[in-house]
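Why should sequence recovery work at all? Because a backbone constrains its sequence more than one might expect. Tight turns favour small or flexible residues, buried strands favour hydrophobic ones, and helices have their own preferences. The token representation captures these environments compactly. In the example below, the structure is given first.
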């Protein structure tokens, strides 16, 4: 496919006369803001559902082999921390990626998070699962944030058309390096060491032919 670039640079601002929300406002919500994010100075509730949850759980299983510490055969996948719904501070935003990964060479051990439960180190990989009512958050606003903070790999799983889109960071904007449909098997960076069945994200058995 022909790579496609998405450049940043567009900004949003709170409505005139209103106060921008802060991380303190986010953490003051019930349950420490579980299910909410701070994006562009506004508190944003994440939408979930059965298909969203299914894709999230399946994705964690697919990248599971990479959670090992490493050692032994260099061809054996390893070297990542994989977390779901972890609050991440990407100043001035505090986002909650559906699934995110940190290379152990950058983050050897998961830190003991303070009372706020926010991780300060930007991820090496993020995957967002599209929710119909909040698609623009993942396709525009959060993609812009991840690009500005140089997150190397950004995946989008879209249950609406059952596709996986893989982006690679570039100084000019994210480059689309892979778009795959449900029936395809792919090797998607940065986890190309393992072949994945895209349909497994949408309810297919991973070992289906």
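From this structural description, the recovered sequence reads:
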């Amino acid at each position: 496919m022909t790579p496609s670039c998405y450049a940043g640079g567009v900004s949003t601002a709170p409505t005139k006369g209103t106060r921008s929300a802060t991380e303190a406002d986010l953490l003051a919500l019930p349950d420490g803001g579980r299910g909410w994010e701070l994006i562009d100075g506004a508190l944003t509730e994440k939408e979930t559902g059965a298909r969203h949850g299914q894709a999230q759980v399946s994705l964690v299983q697919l990248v599971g082999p990479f959670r090992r510490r490493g050692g032994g055969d260099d061809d054996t996948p390893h070297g990542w921390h994989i977390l779901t719904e972890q609050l991440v501070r990407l100043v001035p935003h505090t986002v909650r990626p559906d699934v995110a990964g940190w290379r152990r060479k950058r983050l050897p051990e998961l830190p003991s998070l303070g009372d706020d439960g926010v991780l300060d180190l930007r991820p090496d990989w993020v995957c967002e699962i599209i929710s119909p009512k909040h698609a623009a958050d993942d396709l525009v606003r959060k993609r812009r944030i991840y690009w500005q903070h140089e997150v190397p790999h950004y995946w989008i799983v879209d249950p609406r058309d059952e596709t996986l889109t893989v982006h690679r960071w570039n100084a000019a904007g994210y480059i689309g390096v892979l778009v795959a449909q449900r029936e395809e098997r792919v090797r998607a960076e940065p986890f190309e060491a393992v072949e994945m069945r895209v349909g497994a994200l949408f309810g297919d058995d991973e070992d289906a032919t």
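A few observations help interpret the result. The helical segments are 23-27, 30-33, 50-62, 135-148.
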